[in-house]
Amino acid sequence: MSFDALLPVAQQAIDLASGMVREQHPGTVTEKADRDLVSEADVAVERAVRKFLSEKTPAIGFLGEEEGATDSRNGLMWALDPIDGTSNYVRGLPLCAISLALIDERCAVLGVIDAPFLASRYHAVRGAGAHLNNAPIHTSNTQHLREAIVAMGDYASGADADTKNRDRLALTRDLAVRVQRIRMLGTAALDLAWLAEGKLDAAIMLSNKPWDTQAGVLLAREAGATVLGRSGEPHTFDSAATVACANGSLSAAIRPLIASLGSTG
User: Fold this and answer.
1) Do residues 139 and 225 touch, judged by C-beta distance below 8 A?
2) CA within 20 to 30 Å of 34's CA: 4, 9, 150, 225, which one?
3) Residue 195 to residue 89: CA distance in whole angstroms
4) Which pLDDT tens digit goes with each residue over 42-57?
């Protein structure tokens, strides 16, 4: 299958979602779990995109963060995070994104990320490079940790958060004495998009879900990044963590810091 033929459909789906996010208020905000927020807008966007894609690509399955999966008839699946960075969004912070990936054989082959309040649309198709607003992008050429700006995923909340955050705090400590700066943006999609664009030099998430990361992982790889799982294996749909670096030199420097942690997730 020529996956680039599905890029216009994905772009149209993101157009629909981005317009809704910009034009609607968050609505009622509730907790799915301890401090894990969902807004009415999250659900509305996911339902609208699910409906649109089921009409345009009925044989392709769909996985959404808020309402789960529908079956695929051809082995392909769309994976959507309707608003990545809901906590930012409901507070009026512009760091949020819509992330849509097409999954084939447990890896993304097409991805679109839109930052609706930043006028930034990223896309990638496997083998065709990464783009921002249709212009090619590439990772930075930073080679040394002391020059690197590194994004970290949010600290854990919910069940067993204290145990999980021991690793996050330990990694924060280890990075703080080695890198130029650490950033915590609150959106995995933008972490990976900004890595692809060269604004960041690495992005580390010690836990993640496929709707958070699959579009961004493809985008980062197509821009030249090295993207691995927690144990140093190539990142896939099933990876529970994401360690993405602008190049192999930074990856080689960061991997021992990850390896020194426990396995609490």
Assistant:
1) yes
2) 150
3) 21
4) 999 999 999 999 999 9
